[in-house]
Design a protein that fits this description.
The chain is mainly beta and 338 residues long. Helices cover 0% and strands 61% of the residues. The protein is built from no helices and 18 strands. A hairpin with a 2-residue loop joins strand 13 and strand 14 (246-260).
Length: 338
Amino acid sequence: QGQADIGLTTQRRRWSSLSSTSGSQPMTWGIAGDVSAQLSVGLQSELFYTDNIKYTANSSAIGATVFELTPIIRLDIGDPQEGAMSSSRLSSYYTGILYVPTVRRLLEDGEQEILQHFFGEIGRLTDITRISLRLDYDERIVSSSDDTSLEDTYTLLEASGLLEYHFTPKTMLRSKLTYRDITVEDGQANRLIWIGEEALEWAATAKTTIGLGTELGLIQFERAGLGSQNYQQALLLGRWKPTAKLNMSAKAGLEWRDFDGGTPKTMQITPVGAVALQWLVTEKTRISTRLRAGNEPSIVRQGALFREYRFGAEMMHDLSSQWYLSGDLQFVRRNYDS
């Protein structure tokens, strides 16, 4: 798990990764040769009740029982594992494709829809470099069971390119460019986002890595009246792996944000930070936690900035090679500048 896993300007998205802890979903077929290939197929269902399906004011809230059925299809070609090349790797190239459609049905009125999610990655990993291109489409135009509010409800199209280069065995430069297109149901807060990231990391010891980083972002709203936002972040980075079963990543720093057009605002300077911890309790059980403090333009209030504090914890346990249990908890607080 690297620094890219705890971005300061990215909302939590569904299906950002697959579980179980054994590394793949149930029902897996594969072949091994000059280039390995693996096809994983899974099925997940969820039944829940919410007392406010549209996230409206309490006086007009509508309850609903929701059933979701989600097939999971994943194809991996090559060796998409983290880390440098080793004798166990059959190819320096890798490709991963994930397709996750969700059939969502409101049981009371029979309303049904299908939400799409596609993720693809292609890359090359050698002893000194890693290059990857990613494409992610996540259709969440309506509220879903993983949402905490309408701020988390939008459709995302994201494309990114990543370059990691090791100058020495202990020193690495990371560059990443991201294009993000966010679409909301009423179209009032649609936006295009460009993000550039640079980081220089140094492995101080076998267990500790430290570094400096920066992130530059341009947020352009589709509605001319909302203007645009530009931000810059200066960050301290760190990773610590005291044992083979415990891993922690962190980043912290300051953000400068300018506002162009829309409601007149002065530059804002705020601290930002994120910490992620992964603990492999046993071979079948893992616990992960994440804490984040950052700024986001609002979906609900059409571009008004809010500061978000988000804490999440997840536990997963493999019952067998085909069955697992998982549970997660989230706490989110948002302070709006309006």
